[in-house]
């Protein structure tokens, strides 16, 4: 890598004599501009463009030069041939030197960041469709594509060709999930019934790029206005497909040219060295937890005094994942296709008539409860249960208090009951007057009154006790 950053230009004697007439300041400025351009081009055409150098060193993209230098020195000590071994240590040391030489040069670092920004456009693009599978004949050159930005969620395409189209559950928009899973007549009918003409027949070679570009488009929940308009029209991605594929092909050609210039052994040794450095540059090894990019350099230097971690044994979880992946390949991926259908809403074809609404039992069994209502109903049920628990009072003590009060009045007789005085007249007549003024009624009233008073006191004590428990929890 240092060789890439050196601007070596061979100048003939004639050219030197012709250029000697120019002022020295102009020659130095032109040489500096040419050197910066050569370093930028070298950094853009080097193998480092295929890797994230900041991740390799374990630093942020906005890290200052001092932090990059500290990370480089820390890794260089651990990757030294005397520490990591002569075989792998030499390759890792060479890679680290090239990475640090690029990131320590402001112009080369700027060119690298610009190249990575251009490459970020293709992050996640593999050249294969993202969410549609191919079910049709291999000789078929056409494919079905839905412009999800223009889709209004009318569900007509999913009703006409339910195996080809589905409605995704996040935004409620249609999507072609299986190419040519239905007959061509059904697919054509679904295209013709679309009210906004958002379904198109495209070239099969453009399908992967179209789906990738569509995944980058901002979308929201479908909401049709009064005039059946869905808002402002998004940029036409059909005009961007050719440009996108051209830029992707250029990037692939550059990568292929770089791979052609070096041997397979050199590429494999560099790849293994990069993987080894990435495993060592984990932040847990040289950056303390809880400190961001602005962590003091002293903390970073102190953390480097720790001994290197021992080699980790084989992860059993990884082995189980590999076994599961092998079993999945044997089954042919049928389970994956079935699981992917859970992300889509399936329209119900046997809808009930409006004249005969479903009964209460049918609603309880077949009608799905909306998610929001279910949450509110669950919260209300929990509140009801909590309320019932709150009013449940132990009546043992109040009943005992009422029995004691009634016994006390009965034992003391007329002294406590108020002697022979009572109500002189009653609306119910003499019988009602006798019942009210009877000694037994006074005993019962004393027991009931003190039972109510005891229940109220017990309820207050229970509420205060529960509040104290909630506070401690």
From TrEMBL:
<keyword id="KW-0812">Transmembrane</keyword>
<feature type="region of interest" description="Disordered">
    <location>
        <begin position="311"/>
        <end position="383"/>
    </location>
</feature>
<dbReference type="GO" id="GO:0005783">
    <property type="term" value="C:endoplasmic reticulum"/>
</dbReference>
<feature type="transmembrane region" description="Helical">
    <location>
        <begin position="443"/>
        <end position="464"/>
    </location>
</feature>
<dbReference type="GO" id="GO:0009507">
    <property type="term" value="C:chloroplast"/>
</dbReference>
<dbReference type="Pfam" id="PF13370">
    <property type="entry name" value="Fer4_13"/>
</dbReference>
<dbReference type="InterPro" id="IPR001623">
    <property type="entry name" value="DnaJ_domain"/>
</dbReference>
<protein>
    <submittedName>
        <fullName>DNAJ heat shock N-terminal domain-containing protein</fullName>
    </submittedName>
</protein>
<dbReference type="Pfam" id="PF00226">
    <property type="entry name" value="DnaJ"/>
</dbReference>
<feature type="compositionally biased region" description="Polar residues">
    <location>
        <begin position="347"/>
        <end position="359"/>
    </location>
</feature>
<keyword id="KW-1133">Transmembrane helix</keyword>
<keyword id="KW-0472">Membrane</keyword>
<keyword id="KW-0346">Stress response</keyword>
<feature type="domain" description="J">
    <location>
        <begin position="52"/>
        <end position="116"/>
    </location>
</feature>
<dbReference type="InterPro" id="IPR036869">
    <property type="entry name" value="J_dom_sf"/>
</dbReference>
């Amino acid at each position: 890598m240092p060789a890439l950053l050196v601007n070596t230009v061979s100048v003939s004697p004639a050219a030197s004599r012709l250029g000697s007439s120019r002022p020295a300041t102009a020659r130095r400025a032109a040489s500096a501009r040419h050197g910066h351009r050569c370093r930028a081009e070298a950094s853009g055409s080097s193998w480092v463009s295929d890797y994230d150098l900041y991740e390799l060193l374990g630093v942020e993209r906005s890290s200052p030069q001092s932090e990059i230098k500290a990370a480089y020195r820390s890794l260089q000590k651990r990757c030294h041939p005397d520490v990591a071994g002569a075989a792998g240590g030499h390759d890792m040391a060479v890679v680290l030197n090239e990475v640090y030489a690029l990131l320590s040069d402001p112009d080369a670092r700027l060119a690298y960041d610009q190249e990575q920004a251009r490459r970020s456009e293709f992050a996640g693009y593999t050249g294969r469709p993202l969410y549609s599978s191919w079910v049709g004949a291999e000789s078929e050159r056409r494919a079905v594509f839905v412009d999800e930005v223009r889709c209004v969620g009318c569900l007509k395409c999913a009703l006409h060709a339910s195996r080809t189209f589905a409605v995704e559950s996040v935004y409620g928009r249609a999507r072609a999930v299986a190419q040519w899973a239905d007959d061509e007549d059904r697919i054509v009918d679904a295209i013709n019934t679309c009210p906004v003409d958002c379904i198109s027949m495209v070239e099969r070679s453009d399908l992967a790029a179209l789906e990738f570009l569509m995944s980058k488009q901002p979308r929201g929940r479908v909401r049709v206005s009064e005039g059946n308009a869905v808002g402002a029209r998004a940029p036409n991605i059909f005009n961007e497909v050719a440009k996108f594929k051209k830029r992707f092909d250029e990037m692939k050609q550059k990568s292929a040219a770089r791979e052609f210039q070096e041997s397979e052994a050199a590429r494999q040794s560099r790849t293994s060295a990069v993987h080894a450095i990435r495993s060592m540059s984990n932040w847990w090894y040289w950056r303390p937890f809880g400190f961001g990019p602005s962590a003091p350099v002293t903390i970073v230097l102190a953390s480097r005094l720790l001994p290197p971690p021992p080699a980790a044994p084989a992860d059993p979880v990884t082995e189980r994942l590999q076994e599961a992946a092998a079993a999945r390949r044997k089954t042919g991926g049928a389970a994956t296709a079935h699981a992917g259908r859970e992300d889509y809403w399936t329209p119900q074809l046997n809808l009930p008539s409006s004249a005969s609404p479903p009964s209460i039992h049918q609603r309880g069994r077949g009608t799905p409860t909306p998610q929001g209502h279910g949450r509110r109903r669950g919260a209300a049920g929990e509140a009801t249960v909590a309320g019932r628990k709150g009013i449940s009072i132990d009546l043992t003590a109040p009943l005992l208090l009422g029995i004691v009060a009634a016994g006390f009045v009965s034992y003391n007789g007329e002294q406590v009951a108020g002697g022979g005085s009572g109500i002189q007249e009653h609306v119910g007549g003499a019988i009602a007057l006798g019942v009210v003024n009877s000694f037994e009624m006074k005993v019962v009233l004393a027991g009931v009154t003190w039972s109510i008073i005891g229940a109220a006191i017990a309820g207050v004590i229970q509420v205060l006790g529960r509040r104290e428990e909630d506070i401690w929890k």
